[in-house]
Design a protein that fits this description.
The chain is mainly alpha-helical and 298 residues long. The chain has three domains: 80 residues, no CATH class; 130 residues, hpI Integrase, Chain A, CATH 1.10.443.10; 57 residues, no CATH class. 48% of the residues lie in helices and 6% in strands. The chain contains twelve helices and seven strands. It has a three-stranded antiparallel beta sheet with strand order 1-2-5. A two-stranded antiparallel ribbon has the order 3-4. A hairpin with a 3-residue loop joins strand 1 and strand 2. The chain is globular, with a radius of gyration of 23 Å. The mean pLDDT is 89.
Length: 298
Amino acid sequence: MKAYENDLHIFFVWALQNADNKYFPEISKRDIVAYQNWLLRQNENSPARVRRLKSTLSSLSNYIEAIMDDELPGFRSIVRKIENPVNEPTREKTVLTDEQTKTILDTLVEREQYEQACFFALALYSGRRKSELLRFKVSYFDEENIIYGSLYRTPEKIRTKGRGVNGKMLTCYVLAKPFKPYLDLWMKQREERGIESEWLFPDRSDPARHAPITTANSWAEMYSKISGTDIYMHCLRHAFTTNLAKADIPDSVIQAIVGWESLEMVNVYKDIDNEEEFGKYFADGELVGRKPGELSEL
C-alpha cells in the first residue's frame, strides 16, 4: 500500500508541475504520453519502473470506472491504451578511473564553472545520490562539523531514498580534504556574484529553494561531454565506495559512512576485480599482511 501511495504521489506531483494540476478524470492520452516520456527522459526511470508506475494509474482508473460510475458515468480508463516502453537492459555501468574524474574537475575549474565542479566533487567524495546532493546546505561545511580531521558530518539528517513518505533520514559524510578546494572556489564565486542562499546549490530563479533535479541532470550531461563517456550521478556512488575500499577502509566502516543497512551493499558498489584484490595480499611468492586504511590518508 505504501508503494502504491508513493507511485500516485509521483504522478500527482508531475501533474501539478507539468499539467496545470489537472483533475484526474480529465487526464488525456496525450498527458499519459507526456508523463511516460518524463519518467524515461527526465526522471531516468527504467522501462520496467515506468510499467509499474503506469500500472498504478491503471488500477486507479479501473477503480473509478467500476466503483464510481454513479459519480463519473462517462469515465473510461485510458492508461492501457498507451503502449508501454520496450523493456531494455539497464545501461552499462560506468566505472570511472581517477584520471577521468581528475580530467572532469580540472576542466570545470579551468572554465571557472565552480558550481558544477563543486557538485561533481561532492558526489565523488560523499557517494550521495543526486537528489540528496541538492539538499546540502552551506552551513554543513563549517569547520566545527569536521570529525576526526577527515569528514564533514551534516549537523542535521538529510532525507534519502528509503521506505515511508519521507524516505530515510540519514547523517551524511563528506571527505573533507579532497572536497574543500572545490567548495572554496564555489563559495568565493557565490560571494562575487552576490548569491545568498542557505542551499549549497540554489535554484537560479528562487534562491530560497535548492536547485531542481533537472539541473543535476544537465550537469551530468556536461560531465559526459567532457569525459567522452556516459556519466550518470550514481556512478560516482560506485567511485566513492571503490576509492574507500582501495584505501583499505573496512567494509563495515564503508557501510556506516554510506548508511546502508546491509553489508552486502558494499560489494555491490565496489568496482574491484578479484585479481586486484589478490594483489593486496600476495607478492613475490609470499603472503602480505595489510593493516586497515585511515580516512585521513584519502
